[in-house]
Design a protein that fits this description.
about 325 residues, mainly beta, Immunoglobulin-like, four-stranded antiparallel β-sheet, Dockerin_1_rpt, Dockerin_dom_sf, Dockerin type I domain-containing protein, hydrolase activity, hydrolyzing O-glycosyl compounds
Amino acid sequence: MNPFKRAPRRRQQVQLSAEVLETRQLLTGGAGNTFAILPSTIDEPNGTVSVSFTLDQTHFTRPKGKVAMGIDVVADPSGTLKPLISSVTDPHGDVVPQTIHAIYDPQVKHRQVANGRTTSAVISPITSFPSDASAPVTFTTQVQSTAKTTGKFLLGFYLPGDTNGDGTVDKTDLKVVRSLRGAKAGDKRYSFDADANRDGRITQIDVAYTQQNQGVTTTISPVIAANLDTTSVSNPAARANNMPTARFTGTATPDADVTYTNTSDTSQATIKTKTDSTGNYTVVTPLSRGENVFEVTSVDAFGQTIKGRIAGVTYQP
C-alpha cells in the first residue's frame, strides 16, 4: 500500500500526517477506490488486533448479494511495525474462505508480504447471511505484527474494479481494466486503481474481479469536508464575526453523525447533526469571545471515525 497526496475528487488520494480536517491527510493504499480508512495499533510484539467493519443495504448495493472487498494495510512510516492481514472473520467468528494475498512471485513466502516483497492487500468475498439478507453484517479483519514489531497502522478498504473512484463498478471500469491488460507497475499504461489485487501487474485476474463486482456500489467516503459559510460572518477573510454564531457546511458519508466541539471553550455545548442522504450537512455553532477552534468528528455506518480540527473563527463584538 502506498501513500500519496490528496486530489480534489470524491475519493481522494491521501497520505499520512496529523489529521487536520481542512487539509486532512491519511495513509491509504489506493487512490480513487479507497472508500474507508480504519486506524488501529498493535502494542504487543507479534501481537494481533481485530478491526471491525459493517456492511448495510443503505450504503452498499450488492446485486448478487456479495462483494469482493479489497482490504489493504500500511504501517505508520515513523514506526517499525511490519503488519500482515492474517484473516477476515464473519459475525460468527468463522474465517471467510478464499481471502487471499495476491502473490506476484509464487516463490515468495506468505510472511514476506509484511516485509514489502509483495502486495499487502487481500481480497475477501463478503456475503450476506441467508437468515436476513437485508440486515447489516459486521465482519472483522485480523492484523498481526511480524518480526516482533509494534506500532500504528491503517486499514484501507477499496472496491476492486472501481477504476475511477466513483464508488461504482460498472462496464466503463471493465473496459478500462481490459484495455490495460499486460501493464506492470512502472509502465506508463499501468493504473493502480485498475490493479484489483494490487500485485503490480494487470492481468485477467483483475478483469475477473472487476466482472465479479459489476453493479456493486458504495456511498461510504474516507473524507469529510468542513467549510465556514462566509455569508455567516462579518469578516470572511479574517474568519471573524461580530455576532456570536457561525455557520459551517460540508459533506461526509451519507447518514453519518457529525459533531462540532469548541476546544477553545469547553463550556460550550457540542453541536450535533447528521448528514443527509446525499452526504451534505449544515451546522450553526455558538462562538465565545476570542478565537474558537472546533474539533469536527464524523462517525459512519461502516465503523469509520474521522476526526480533526479546523482553522479558528474569532468572535469580536
